[in-house]
Specification:
Length: 443
């Protein structure tokens, strides 16, 4: 009798459980099932890849939404006219380790696999996703060539980037033209939109990364520890400072009076927002205490162009009584080519005894790689910031803006490379010393 009563209950339980199981299967996302199947295949067959060409890496697999979206008319811009999702553009032959993959249909109906990857060249915190059409897959970890770079060529490349557009996290002079084929615009687009679409251009980190063939970091936290520190107490008498070349010749340094640039381009203020973290005074946002390089990156807010009267006082070689100018000239005695100067997320790369290069954001859809006076840059930094050896040290003034200098290039090798370049180009070297100034004459 008891068994007869239990049998209907048991049958009902089976039906309920079966129904729950069936309901769970119906609610399963098909993309998740495909993703799991692909994960299993990938883990066995193709764990590695090499980039075929300049290859964008984004922080999302939703590439179709970034390059055109539903309308197909323009990239996904943020309020600053930049593409937030770009992490960097990898050079051809960059090694990638494949972690996960997702299959999606693009706006034009193309079945595409997107890989979540890692790579030795990126130490930042963002996820990296790549369109599989940019990759050559391999079952064996690629053997990467020994890392070596001709520093003279690095300087030449940096100079060649002048006037290229500022691109948030950009690291390619030509961009990735394949993006126009894989994600074609639905209508005719302007040249500026086309350059944005293919991610053409640089920020300062991407610029030195690409010019150095991947020798320098792609994130600001790593850059703050890269190479070795360049520092001296600028309150000392100049004769007691370390003797390092190049020693600036005040008459040779381009002063604002002799510059062909307009007043608005002189004395770049380190607090002005550019490719990296904004300052408190330029955006109204709360900046990281002491400009901690490990802080999360933030986009700059637009800032109206400053009038000449609001700029830093022009450094002049005739203004010998200016204490900031005296310190600037002392600091320039320490600086060598390819030194990296950083304040927050704004970065300058030293080209020679008189010039620096940076890729600078100015306003929405406006910014470019610019070569400017080293003296102007150093003077502006000293006017607004505190020169420190350790960018992570706490300052007594919590609101102070810190700047620091890192040296990564072998200057002795650079001098030799510059000499060889001069000879190779048919130039007659009439004077060559232990300084970085090489005097050449055309034959």
């Amino acid at each position: 009798m008891l068994m007869k009563k239990m049998f209907p209950l048991l049958a009902l339980s089976i039906i309920v459980l079966t129904g729950c199981s069936s309901s769970g299967t119906e609610e399963q996302n098909p993309d998740d099932l495909v993703d799991k199947n692909l994960d299993q295949i990938m883990a066995v067959k193709t764990p590695f890849a090499l980039t075929k060409s300049d290859t964008p890496l984004l922080n999302t697999p939703e590439w179709d939404q970034i390059f055109g979206g539903d309308s197909g008319s323009e990239p996904k811009y943020d309020q600053y006219g930049e593409i937030d999702e770009l992490v960097f553009v990898a050079a051809p032959g960059t090694e990638l380790s494949l972690q996960r993959q997702v299959r999606k249909n693009t706006r034009i109906g193309t079945d595409t696999i997107y890989y979540k990857v890692t790579t030795p060249v990126y130490k930042g915190d963002e996820e990296l996703w790549v369109d599989g059409r940019f990759l050559n897959l391999t079952e064996v970890r690629p053997q990467m060539p020994d890392a070596s770079v001709n520093n003279a060529h690095v300087i030449s490349r940096l100079r060649s980037y002048e006037s290229l557009p500022f691109t948030w996290h950009g690291s390619s002079a030509d961009g990735a033209p394949e993006l126009l084929e894989y994600y074609p615009p639905a209508e005719e687009i302007s040249l500026r939109t086309k350059n944005d679409w293919i991610l053409k251009g640089f920020d300062s980190l991407g610029m030195i990364y690409r010019a150095s063939e991947g020798q320098t970091p792609l994130d600001y936290k790593s850059l703050a520890r890269f190479g070795e520190s360049v520092f001296a107490d600028l309150s000392q008498d100049p004769s007691s400072l370390p003797s390092t070349d190049p020693t600036p010749d005040p008459e040779a340094v381009k002063s604002p009076e002799s510059s062909d640039k307009s007043p608005s381009t002189l004395n770049p203020e380190p607090s002005t927002a550019d490719e990296g973290k904004p300052s408190e005074e330029s955006t109204g946002e709360t900046a990281p205490t002491n400009n901690d390089p490990s802080s999360t990156e933030a986009k700059p807010a637009e800032k109206p162009a400053e009038s000449p009267s609001t700029l830093n006082p022009k450094p002049s070689t005739e203004n010998g009584g200016d204490p900031i100018l005296v310190k600037a000239q002392r600091l320039m005695k320490l600086i060598k080519p390819l030194d990296i100067i950083q304040m927050g997320d704004r970065v300058w790369i030293v080209l020679d005894k008189g010039e620096v290069v940076e890729s600078r954001y100015r306003s929405k859809f406006d910014g470019s790689v610019q070569i400017s006076s080293l003296l102007d840059a150093v003077y502006g930094l000293l006017s607004k910031g505190v020169f420190v050896k350790d960018p992570f040290e706490e300052l007594e003034n919590k609101q102070a803006k810190k700047f620091f200098i890192r040296r990564w290039a072998n200057t002795d090798e650079l001098l030799s490379e510059l000499l060889m370049e001069a000879i190779k180009n048919g130039e007659e070297v009439t004077s060559f010393s232990t300084t970085t100034e090489t005097v050449v004459e055309e034959k």
